[in-house]
Write a structure and sequence with these properties.
two-stranded antiparallel sheet; 51% helix
């Protein structure tokens, strides 16, 4: 899974290298967007999924079948709804 992520990341970097941050393209649903905006959306999405991973890890650690660990602290809810144009 990590290898697939790294390959996709490298491909994205190669594609993005052909554009400036403020180059504008038309997205079928979002309208006119620039690379800076796309990076923002990707960072937000990546952070949300990383947060989901943290929640799953904490639930597994706190399950009755797993001994409790004192190093796990509950996190506040950080959910934000997806951006809509």
């Amino acid at each position: 899974m990590i290898g697939e992520f790294e390959r996709a990341s490298e491909r994205s970097r190669v594609i993005a290298a052909d554009f400036e941050l403020d180059d504008t393209k038309t997205h079928p649903r979002a309208g006119d967007v620039n690379l800076r905006f796309i990076y923002l959306i990707l960072i937000e999405d990546f952070a949300r999924h990383a947060g989901h991973g943290d929640i799953l890890r904490e639930q597994i650690i706190a399950s009755p079948a797993t001994p409790a660990r004192s190093t796990v602290r509950p996190r506040p809810s950080t959910y934000s709804p997806p951006w809509r144009p």
